[in-house]
Amino acid sequence: MTERQLDAFVKRLTLKEKASLMSGRDFWQTKPLPDKGVWPLRLSDGPHGLRKEDLKNAKENGGHSVKATCFPTAAALACSWDEELAEQVGAAIAEECRSHGVGVLLGPGVNIKRSPLGGRNFEYFSEDPLAAGKMGAAMIRGIQKRGVGASLKHFAVNNQETLRMTISAEVDERALREIYLKPFEIAVKEGKPATVMCSYNRINGVYASQNKMLLTDILRREWGFEGLVMSDWGAVDDRAAGVAAGLDLEMPYSGGATDEDVVRAVQEGRLSEQALDAAVKNVLRLVAAYAHKPRTPYHQAAHRSLAEKACEKSAVLLKNDGILPLEKQSNLAVIGALAAGTGRYQGGGSSVVNAHAPMGFTGAMAQRGWAYINYAPGYRTEHTRPDAELEEQAVRYARTAQTVVYFMGLTDLYESEGFDRTHMRLPENQTHLLEKLAEANPNLVVVLAGGSPMEVPWLDQVRAVLYTVLGGEGLGEATYRLLFGEACPSGKLSETWPLRLEDNPSARYFPMGPRVVTYNESIYVGYRYYDKAGQAVRFPFGYGLSYTRFVYRDLHVDTGKNGELLVKVRLANVGDRAGDEIVQIYAGCPHSSVHRPVRVLVGFARVSLKPGEERQVEISVPRDRLAFYDPVQHRFVVEAGQYEICAGASSRDLPLRKAVLVSGEAVMPLYAQSADGPYGAFSDNRFSDAAFYGVHSRPPQNNALPHPGEYDRNTPLRQMNESKLARMLASAARVMTRKTLHFSPHAQVNQKVAHAMVGDLPFRNIQRNAWFLLNVKQAGRVLDLCNRPNKK
Ligand code: BGC
Predict the structure, then answer these.
(1) Terminal CA-CA length for the chain
(2) Model confidence over 73-102: pLDDT tens digits?
C-alpha cells in the first residue's frame, strides 16, 4: 500500500474502527478488518527464542508454547561481544517465527543492569550502554533481515521487577540520556526496529506508555524512529493520553473500554483525530509489512548447532590455575543437580522457551560415548536446605576422583520476571556442599550458571570457574567442549561482579518504593562507579580468561574523515591454541570540567587468532562516544581537551594508553555537574539526597504507603492491604493468575511469580484483565469500597 492509498484507506474508517484497530484482538494478535482486507498480525515473545503460546497442544508440546530453539539469553550472548553472532541468533529466531506465522518478535531488551538483583537481568545485555546498544542493534538486524519485525523493549528505565507496574524511576536527565536511554538510541539508530515496546513503570512521574517526551520528542523526533510503539502487556494507564503521547498499539485486548476512552477523547476534543490517524497508520503499516507471510520451515539441526556455538562463544572462564582444560579421564566426579537433566539454561518469565532438546553436561557426556558417569546430585534445586544424604554421596564420589567438576548456579527460584533477587548469594545447600567437596578433593572445578553476578567468597577454595551464564539449550555440549579443551573459552563479562552486594552503587537505593525509586548514583552505574570509587571488585567489567595468551602492542590513534578516532592496536596470540580475544577500547577525560567516570567503553572487537598469529586491529570510535550530556543545554557535548585512550583485555587490564587532543566545545558546567561538585569524587556508594536533588530537576516526591481513602486506580494491590476487600480481590487474582501463568515449568516458581506479580498489579488492571467479569463502573464502585475505612 502506498502512503496515498493508506491515507485514503484511513479516511474511510470510522472513529470506532480506528480506535479499535489500535488495541489487540486477544493476547497475541492485532485486530483484523476482514471485509477491508486487514489481516491480524501475530506477536510472540522473545527475546532468546520463540515463545508462541499454544495452550491447546500443551501435552503434545510438553509445554505451553510451541517447541523452539532456546538460544543463550541476552546476558550470555552479551559476553560473546560478537555482533555477528547476535545477528545470526536473531535471524535464526526469526526463521522460527516465520515457520509459525509470527510477524513480530517481542525482543530484544536493552535495559541497563542497574543492580545485580534485577529479576530480569538475564534478559538484558549489560551495565554498559554501548555494549547493550550494539548487541541489541545486531540482534534486530538479524531478526528483520528474515522478514520479521523486532520489538525493542522495555522503553525505558525498567531496571527492577519490584513494583514494576507503578514505580516512578526518579532519574536525573544526564543519567537518563548517558546511561538509560543510550542503548535504546543506539539500537534504534543502528538496528531500525519495526516496533518499540514501552515499559510498565513511570519515568520521573509519567508512565512510559503516556510519556510524550520519550515516545515522541526523543524516540521519533530526535532519533528518527519511524515504526510502531506498543505497550507492554497491561502497561496502559490512560489510553487517550497514551495516543496523544505517541503510543500506537495497546496490548493485549482489554475489553474495549479503552477503545471507548479514545473515541470519547476525540469527540470531546481532548485528543486530535490527527494523532489517532497517525497511530492507525503505524498499525496498518506494520500489519502490511509483517502479517500473513507464507510459512517457511526452518532447519532445526542448524539452529541447534548455532545455539551450541553461541553458548560456547559466550561462556566466561573466571578462574583457572592451569587445571583446565581437563584431560578425558575416567576418574572424574561430576557433582551437582545442575549438571544433569536440562542444566540451568534459561530464566523464568515471559521469555521461557519450550526448548527442543535442552541438555545438561551429563547428557552431553553420554552423547559423546562416556560409558560410565560418576555423577551425584549433591543438592536439590527445589529448595535451599542442605541434604545430608545427598551430600554424603557426593563427597564419597569426590574423595576417590582425580578431579571434581561441581555444577552450581542460581535456580528457577532465584531468577525470573516478576520478582527481584533479595541477595547475591548462591543457594545455601550449594555453598554448604562446596565446603565439603573442597575438603574432600583439592582438584575442584566449578561450572557456574546464572544470569547475574553472584557472591563467590569460596573462590580461593577451587582451582577453576567456568561461568556459563544462562547459555540456552546448547549448554551441555558447549560446556563439554570448553572443559575438555575442544574449544577455547573467550567470553568476557558484560557486567562487573562486585565482591559483595553492599559494594554495588545502587545497593542503598534499590528497589525502594512504595511509590518512587531514586537513582541517587546518577551516571555511576557498574564499572563507572567501581573505577571512580577505587573499589576492589571480584571480576571487572570486560574480564575473562582464555586457554591461550594474547599480547597487546603499538597503540596508535588517528583522526578519521568525520572526526572519529581510528584506534589501531597490534594483537598477538602468543599461546599454543587458537582463540578469540575481545579487544576493548576505553576513553577518559582526566581534566574534564564536568564530573565523569574515569573512563568508559568506546569500542570493542572480537578477534580470532591462530597460535603465533599477530594482527593489527582497527576500531573506529565516533566522536559522540566521547560526549557527555549537558542537562542545561539538553544535548550531548564533546568537550575540547585531552582524552586518554586505553586499549586492553578488560576495564581493569589496559596495558596501552595514549593521550590525544580532541577538538570540541569549551564547557562551563553548573556546580552540581562540575568536576568539583558532589559527584566529582567519592569513595563509597552513599550518594546523598542533597547531591541527587542537585542534579535532578524534580523535587522529592511523596513516597509514603497509601492508606484507605488514598487508593486510586494506580495503587498496587499489595499496598491496599489495609482493605479487607482488596485483600480478597488479591487472593482471587492470585488464584486466576496461578491458573493461567506458565512462566516456568515448575509449579512452585509459578506460584512465587504469581504472588509477586499480583501484589504489584495496579488496581486498574483488575478490571482490564477481568473485563468479562467487571465493567469500568463496577470497578470504580469496588475501588470506592476499598477506600472506606475498615469497620473495627
Ligand atoms: C513482559 C514483556 C513480554 C510481554 C508479553 C510482559 O509481561 O514484560 O517483556 O513481551 O509480557 O508476554
Answers:
(1) 65
(2) 999 999 999 999 999 999 999 999 999 999
Q: At residue 790, does pLDDT exceed 80?
A: no
Phi, psi of 29 (to 5 degrees): -125, 155
> Measured between alpha carbons, how far is 238 from 233 in angstroms, rounded to an integer?
14
Percent of the chain residues topping a pLDDT of 70: 100
Cα distances (angstroms) measured from residue 698 to each of 173, 230, 317, 448, 702: 10, 27, 44, 42, 12
If we measure between CA atoms, which residue out of 572, 606, 600 comes closest to residue 586? 600
Contact 148, 103 (CB under 8 A): yes
460 DSSP assignment: G
217 is catalytic: no
From the candidates 45, 128, 172, 232, which is the catalytic residue?
232
Rounded CA separation 720/716 (Å): 7
pLDDT mean across residues, the chain: 96
What are the residues facing 53 on neighbouring strands?
65
Q: Is the CB of 153 under 6 A from ligand 1?
A: yes
Cα(299) to centroid(ligand 1), Å: 27
Cis peptide bond upstream of 716, omega within 30: no
Nearest to 626 by CA among 592, 656, 676, 654: 592
Q: Which domains does the chain have, with CATH numbers?
A: 3-290 (3.20.20.300), 301-491 (3.40.50.1700), 548-669 (2.60.40.10), 717-786 (no CATH)
Is residue 266 predicted with pLDDT exceeding 80?
yes
- What digits encode the pLDDT tens for the residues 652-676? 999 999 999 999 999 999 999 999 9
Q: How far apart are CA 645 and CA 557, in angstroms?
A: 8
Predicted TM-score (pTM) above 0.70: yes
Q: Write down the residue that cell numbers 558417569 correspond to.
A: 373
Q: Whose CA is nearest to atom 4 of ligand 1?
A: 233
Residues facing 465 on adjacent strands:
319, 446
For 770, residues 6+ apart whose C-beta sits below 8 A from its C-beta are: 736
Quick one: which of 252, 238, 244, 237 has its CA closest to 215?
244
Ligand 1 centroid to Cα of residue 235, in Å, is: 10
